[in-house]
Structures are given as structure tokens and as C-alpha cells.
Predict the 3D structure of the following.
Amino acid sequence: MKLGFHLGYWGSGPIPGAQESVLEAERLGFDSVWSAEAYGSDAFTPLAWVGAATSRIKLGTNIVQMSARTPAATAMSALTMDHLSGGRFVLGLGASGPQVVEGWYGQPYPKPLARTREYVEIVRKVLAREEPVTIDGQFFQLPLKGGTGLGKPLKPTVHPLRADLPIYLAAEGPKNVALAAEICDGWLPLFFSPKSDGFYRAALEEGFARPGARRSGLDGFEVAASVPVIVHDDVEEAAGFIKPALALYIGGMGAKSVNFHHDVFARLGYADVADKVQELYLAGRKEEAVKAIPTSLVEDTSLIGPAEKIREELAAWEETVVTTLLLRGDAGSLAKAAKALS
């Protein structure tokens, strides 16, 4: 199983020590480094900045929000990043949720799976550069219909370094996971647990079995899961570092009626906990929401505790569809985690 380093997105400002952490990850032999975006920092710029200081480690977005850019603009950034990095770029895409898509980007959210399918199709056409890009889709038209009538089919001026550079899809629900298997080269799960492996394995197999799928099975398909790893003698204290973020995602990252993160934990067997956390968080009782999260939930989706415990629990992860563990932390914590996982 490979290791990756997830920078995430900025909080109120740049991530302290980001480049030092990336350099340490490359020195430790990590396979990849990833950036994110929500409604603050973008995903491409920080990745290009840290990528300029590295030579081997893969550079991925986890994730670029599709509603933030047209498919052609995303393809242009991917094409550019791949050239600048010498073929190290991985394009990770995601639909986000209606609060951000409609509230921040001003784009419609309905039918995200069908929209994703068209989006990826256009990105692949741009990167292939085989002919001028045209599509008469439900969500995208190239050239645009109803404009001046002067729109012209185009293809990128820049020749791609890799016409088939890998595209991964962030997905949490079974239909979206199946779509990742059908049209993409990898899946970016959040809050994965070995206990849910059978559920997601079935969703992936459904996608692989569809007519025209890029692959017929897991061979060559990457699953890069964001997994908190905290080496600490006190399990409860280690869990305490993770619970606030879980409360945020379960309780506040999405509307009460549409929160995909909440649904992940409900499927994992924590429906009552997820409901309680959401209720408390949306009522502004955030500290209570954090306290409502049991340590068992953290342990199901993380690797925490003494190094010996982590190594024992890693065996269960190695039996899953996950091919890469994406870690977070500063340079020192990355070194400790890598040692525990070795």
C-alpha cells in the first residue's frame, strides 16, 4: 500500500510549513501529494508551488470542484500542470454539494452524476487533442447554443504531454462510486472504513461491468483514501484531535437534508450518532457535537494510537480496495506515521 500526503485547503491563510512537509514526504518515499479547494484557496496554485520544489512525487488535486470551472478550463489547467511537472499530475474531480455549488459558484446542482459524465467526457476530449471539441449535451454545449452564433469548435493549442493523464473521482454514494469505476482511473474516498469495503467493492464492480467502462476490474484502478494516522500513546487523546473535524463534516458540511458525509457514517452503523451530531452542530452546539462522537467511530475510519496498534490494524486496510493512504500533518508527524506504517 502506497502513502500519500494530503495538504488539504487553506484555513484563514496559507498552510504553515507546507513546502517543508511536502519535501519531507518526498524524502520519505511518499507516492503522491494532494491539494484541495472549497470556497477559499484554489487547488491548482498551491500544488504548482510545492510541485516546483519536488522532482519525483506525484501531484494530485483532491479535489477540484467541477462547478468552479468549465470543463475546458479544468482541462487546460491539467494539461499545463502535467507539462510543468514532467508527467506527475493527477486530476481529481468532485461535485461538492448544493450549498457550495449553488451558494458559492452560482451553478445548478441537480443531476450531479449526469453532469459529471459530460464534464469528464469534455476534459478527455480536450486532453486527447484529436479533433476540435464539440458536444451537444444536456449541461454543456460546445460551441454554445443560443449565443452569437459565432462560436467555433476548437482544440487546445498546446499538445498534451499525456493525452490519457489519470482522472480520479471523489465519491461517497454508491452510484457515484460506480461512476468513478466506469469513467475514471481512480476513486478518492473520504471516511473509508475496512468495515465498508464490501459495500464499496460491490459499487465499483457495478461500474466496471458497465458497457464501455475503462476497465473490467480493480487491476490498475487506484483508490486513494484520506485516512487520519496519529501515532500517540493515548488513544482517547489521539481521537480527540480528529473528532472536531468529524463533527464539522457530519454536522455542518451540507444541508440537513443533503449531507453526503452524514450518510457515510449512517451506512457504517452510526446513524443515531450522525443524527445527533448533525442536530447539535446545526443548533450551534458544536462542542456538544464533538463530544457526541464515540472513539469507536474514529477508530473505524482512522489509524490512531501506539505504533504497535496501528501496525496491527493496518492489516485490515491492506485487505480492502484501498491502494493509497493519504495522510495529513507536519513534517515530524509524517515521519512518525510512515515509520509506524512501515
